[in-house]
TrEMBL record, chain A:
Family: Belongs to the MON1/SAND family.
Highest taxon of the lineage: Eukaryota
Descriptive protein name: Vacuolar fusion protein MON1 homolog
FUZ/MON1/HPS1 second Longin domain span: 310-408
Automatic annotation (TrEMBL), chain B:
Biological process, per Gene Ontology: plasma membrane bounded cell projection assembly; protein transport
Name this polypeptide is given: Ras-related protein Rab-17
InterPro entries found in the cross-reference section: P-loop_NTPase, Small_GTP-bd, Small_GTPase
Enzyme Commission number(s) of this protein: 3.6.5.2
GO terms, molecular function: G protein activity; GTP binding; metal ion binding
One Pfam family of this chain: Ras
Catalyses which reaction(s): GTP + H2O = GDP + phosphate + H(+)
Amino acid sequence: MAADVHKKKSWEVPNGSLAPGDGQHAERSESPTPGLAQGTEPGAGQEGAMFVHTRSYEDLTSPEDGAAAARSPEERRGEPAEQSSMEQISKDFSELSTQLTGMALDLDEEMRAGKEGKLEPSPQTARRDSVLSGKEEEDVTMDAWRSHRKHVFVLSEAGKPVYSRYGSEEALSSTMGVMMALVSFLEAEKNAIRSIHADGYKVVFVRRSPLVLVAVARTRQSEQEIAHELLYIYYQILSLLTWTQLNHIFQQKQNYDLRRLLAGSERITDNLLDLMAHDPSFLMGAVRCLPLAASVRDAVSSSLQQAKAKSLVFSILLSGNQLVSLVRKKDQFLHPIDLHLLFNLISSSSSFREGEAWTPICLPKFNSSGFFHAHISYLEQEMDLCLLLVSTDREDFFTVSDCKRRFQERLRRRGVQHALHEALRTPFYSVAQVGIPDLRHFIYKSKSSGLFTSPEIEAPYVQEEEKERLLGLYQYLHSRAHNSSRPLKNIYFTGPRENLLAWVTNAFELYVCYSPLGTKAGAINAVNKLMKWIRKEEDRLFILTPQTY
Amino acid sequence: WAQQGTVTPEGPRPSHTYKVVLLGSMSVGKSSLAYRYVKNDFRELLPTVGCSFFTQILELDEATVKFEIWDTAGQEKYQSVCHLYYRDAHAALLVYDIANKQTFSRAKLWLEELEKKFLPDEIVIALVGNKTDLAAEREVTTEGEDFARTKGLLFMETSAKSNHQVNDVFMAVGELWHGSSPFIVTEMLLPASPACTTP
């Protein structure tokens, strides 16, 4: 990779804070060192990033956790949506006033009239949905229910159940009442409950008025990581309703039964929890790309870029939970959390397989007060390639639908379909390609691009629980590396069944799993070799030249 | 009406595009009806997110008819955006589940809403009682047909699962729009399934 491809301008990072100083990025060095500046590590984009910059995992949680959660609810009432600088930018994005005012009005009317039972009472819809999703409601008095590794509950501040991962919410209303009592009791003392640790369980509370989220877990995750997952659930709910509407509802009627509005979407939340248990994307706060030859990816990106429309903000092509290409409006950045929510939405619904979907969707990290409209469709039957076109204009269905047609036409004309098909046949690469005998698996994240790469999980991690155990080990290393009171940069962990190494720098994060027979010196040697390999393969494993319209 | 091609000896055939919207409660089978009609297949589907769009082209005797089918989500949270989907519609299918009385009440509410937004001759409205395969659990008997008659709606009972009268609903709507007398069509439709005839 030649160094002179980098024009000075291309390093301007929009929010300014993370752009490396001039000169620091002059070399894309062959063998990265701990002092490697952000933006020069393998996988760093040549044209700047696609995503909102989140320096690290802490960025995703701590500003909110720290400041907002410490205050009492009285202080927080009437406060506008959590605002990151990105949301501020997005507010200026004038066309984005696609709020569903209609819905708010309908609700008002309905609440005044008090005809709640007249439409569809939620028990009915809940029953129907559980039938549809094939999820049998569990008996909450059984041992099987108690033995789940992680329970997640969402409740309103009035103590009303909103969601439970296992078992019906009705059966759990008294349990949730107790949870709310705990929260309220401490708040009365101008304090806040964060977690309870007892008997191998962690009970973690996340308060996001008007909701309270609680996890009861006996996983190896840290409290911080569990709280992070709960935040994802909160954002998932926002993506369906918007922050504005959620607050409006509870301001109108404190004991509103939110399950009415979430009916039919429980499986999206269920799916998100399952996904977080085995997909490292959420832990890394980064996005994985489908391995694809750079020339093919560039052709796909250009085709997407050319099939633009005035109202389009993001055009995203994805396969499974891997990104193929993302084209964005200039100056508009997607947050990895928002992209994860989109991935989850698509993977949890089979309905996109047929026809073209057109749905309101809120991207809570981008703007939690408004809806975008997303056009979602698969490119071809029986091919796992989903196109997502995010528009600001809910009236623009036919224009956006035509963008899809134009995109497909360009793909055909460029003749990359065959190569794309081939790439989809092997969506994961084998760790054997790296050529390091003791190496079993790794996760490498480029911080500046917000992208990560990871090979397929192979033997001996064949069983589902073995895979989860491996992810659990990564979670453990990650939590040690990102411990807020005592962060670590290098960790070498020797276990009975494998050895692991974690290396966190300003530019990248690397987690490596070796066979238990290797030595520490061997592991460190292997890291250098691995980094060289990633550098060599970076244009296939990452998106180095993200495009804008 | 099964004629193929767009050019007849008399010249190019006229073609019409009709927008048809499916409305109704969650889990009454709106997507299944659309899927059966467009793909002639049935499978258990998960709840629709937002709205799904399908097109289907019909070759009628005198014209080519293109249906733009908007299959809406029955979930309450999407109901406020539904007006986006039914605006300018030529036809609406109000779908309920014959084995669930509440969904029938909901279909009536949908009719009230449509009556507020459309003039009577602007839109063809069909009341569709779906899931006749669940006849053993039937909760809505003759009320559907009676209600349709008093309101002047097309009425039909269907089953997307067993492919009962699904094509007919769409055909009836199409025929009505391209010029046949509404009365003929309504009469043709009224002797519905035996389970539904008035005693």
